[in-house]
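## Example record

The block below lists the input lines for one assembly entry, exactly as stored, with component labels intact.
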Amino acid sequence: MLNKQLALVGEKATVVAFEGLGVDAFPVESADDARKVIARLIRKKEHAVIFVTEDVGKEIGDIIAESSKQYEPSVVLVPSSAGSQKIGLRKLSQVLKRALGTDILKIE
Amino acid sequence: MKLAVNPTRMELLRLRKRLVLARRGHKLLKDKQDELMKRFMGLVHQIKDLRLSVEHELEEAWKRFLIARAVGGAEIVEGAVSMPTRKTCVEVRKQQIMNVAVPEFKLSTEGKIASYGLATTPAELDTALVAMERVLGRMVELASKEKALELIGDEIERTRRRVNALEYVLIPSLEETIRYISMKLSEMERGNLTRLMRVKEIVRGRT
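Predicted structure tokens for the full assembly:
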């Protein structure tokens, strides 16, 4: 059993909130910035779960999709303060399509 | 497609053994696929509900925090949360589901949330942090389940490829080759018989 940290990547205005709970917050400004930060976090494996807000996550779907095949870390899309854009659910339906050949939840 | 082998009895026996093995492997993989599918479907429905409720709760928590930020001022609020005494980490436990290694996360925390002066910060910040704390546990649960789903989904895809390769490629080609060899062998047998009969006739004609 291992103890690992939690990380949250997103816009500065909101991610700092979770710092108060002891989650490592990584504010990012642009998609390039986010790409670098998340690639580093995935490589270092110090964080078991990386939460990424949807605003940031929609730009870098490729990295997130790639990480889904690894055992660790778990990259999870969460809505930003602007509200859910259903990107997290769409990722779920992609997993379904790959495994079953069809989207049984009919999210789109 | 027929395999490139010599039509001999030894080859025939060897291929028959391979066919039995392939059939057994196919059955096992098919069973594995069915079981994986069962787990997968169970997870899918849990995750969908969990995700919808987490998203809803998190949006509420964000809203509370943004209100706190607006009321208390960005700098004060950000300063208040930037030095937490609370330690949060997750225990990662390796779990095997049908031989797929899946991490299981469990949130563990120590220390208090409110590590800032209450006099200068708005009351909304306290409620926002409590709301966030509540949703964080469920977010970690979601992370654990989504990871399991992704890994199992991956395994289903791989198993399906194997099952299909056995069912539609290897087993039919083995069957075809076995048929080809046994036909060839009986053809040779018949050829041999007629040759013997012919030779015998010639020998009988001479005496």
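Chain B has a mean pLDDT of 89. The helical segments of chain B are 9-72, 74-82, 123-206.
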